[in-house]
Specification:
Elements: H1 13-25, H2 35-38, H3 42-45, H4 51-71, E1 86-89, E2 92-95, H5 101-104, H6 107-116, H7 120-129, H8 141-144
Antiparallel strand pairs: 1-2
């Protein structure tokens, strides 16, 4: 198989129609616009998908759309959202890349508001799980109220 070539039969016209509608519903103009946000390859950004790739992306976009609809439901509560996820492309699994704030549009303020309500311990645990190294904030000894002698500087 040549470099950059699909590893299966091409997506059907119906799959491409469904994908186009879902990508537009997600706030993108076309596949090329959604490339970074959805983790698409150059071939996929040009609208060329295999049947398996199209099926996986349709399922993912429908799930995200359902999650967004549940989060914005009448109760106003959050279903936890989809913070993970991956795109299967040509037999490899690639982690989802976060969207830039400008691409998120109206989701950005809502997401920031939801993050403010997450307990610090839970947020820190999730960031550590994703490979981040965290340094907890600390006050200078003059503002902390204790002499700082018995405090662990690393936390």
């Amino acid at each position: 198989m040549a470099f950059g070539q699909p590893s299966g039969p091409p997506a059907t016209a119906r799959q491409l129609r469904d994908l186009t509608a879902l990508v537009e519903a997600a706030g993108h103009t076309d596949f090329r616009d959604a490339r970074g946000a959805l983790g698409l390859t150059q071939r996929q950004a040009a609208g060329r998908f295999t049947r398996d790739e199209a099926e996986a992306l349709i399922a993912r976009l429908e799930t995200e759309q359902d999650d967004d609809a549940t989060a914005a439901g009448p109760s106003g509560g959050s279903s936890g959202g989809s913070s993970g996820g991956s795109v299967v492309t040509t037999g490899r699994t690639r982690p989802r890349t976060p969207t830039a704030p400008s691409a998120q549009g109206s989701r950005s303020p809502r997401l920031a508001d939801q993050l403010r309500r997450v307990p610090e311990e839970l947020l820190a645990a999730e960031l550590r799980r994703r490979g981040w190294a965290l340094i907890p904030p600390s006050l200078p000894p003059s503002l902390d109220g204790d002499d700082g002698a018995d405090r662990d500087p690393i936390g």
